[in-house]
Amino acid sequence: MFSTTFIAAAVAMSSVLQPSAGLVFRRTVNCDNILDWKPNTQYTAGNQTVFTNELWTATQWSYNNPPYDAANEWSLDGSCSVPRPPVKVSCQGIAAWNKQTQYDGGSKVTYNGDLWYAPNWVSSNVPGDKSGSWVEEGVCTN
Ligand SMILES: *[C@@H]1O[C@H](CO)[C@@H](O)[C@H](O)[C@H]1NC(C)=O
Questions:
Q1: Probe ligand 1: pick from 40, 41, 44, max atoms within 8 Å of CB?
Q2: Which end of the chain is more exposed for a tag (fewer CB within 10 A), N or C?
Q3: What pTM does this model have?
Q4: Which atom of ligand 1 is nearest to the CA of 41?
């Protein structure tokens, strides 16, 4: 059974639709006050987070699995109506990503001028690809 509040919220959320990749239409949602996804943080069912400018809700306990479509631990609520500005970070001493290297969880690399973090072991996945293996931590200032 749905409450009136839930229906009102659902109607409000679905009233703004925007095209995204392919023929999928993605809701635009308000991400104010929702924290960016963080590694080494436990999320439980119902927790919300923002990852790559999208709002996600944990469907179950989740740890070091960044939200993305293939992960069963998160459901996508929609794209943030106000995109977040990139965080600026120092990349001093961080090596560039290398396709031949196997990275342990906790590794950091630079790629295309950004700093990336791997929560889990990763081999050939490219930072920024749809696997979500790499989490962007910010834009390198140096
Ligand atoms: C998850 O939700 C619980 C209950 O509301 C809250 O106490 C906790 O801080 C949330 N955790 C995160 C990482 O958002």
A1: 44
A2: N
A3: 0.67
A4: 13
Q: How far apart are CA 74 and CA 89, in angstroms?
A: 27
Kindly report, residue by residue over 124-138, the tens digit of the pLDDT.
999 988 888 898 888
Looking up tokens 């749905």 gives 2
Taking CA atoms only, the protein residue closest to ligand 1 atom 2 is 47
Atom of ligand 1 nearest to the CA of 38: 13
The closest of 58, 34, 27, 23 to 44, measured between CA atoms, is 58
Ligand 1 binding pocket includes 41 (Cβ within 6 Å) = yes
Average pLDDT over residues 37-45: 92
Query: b or e along 85-107 (b: 16 or more beta carbons within 10 Å of the residue's beta carbon)?
Result: eeeebebeebeebeeeeebeeeb
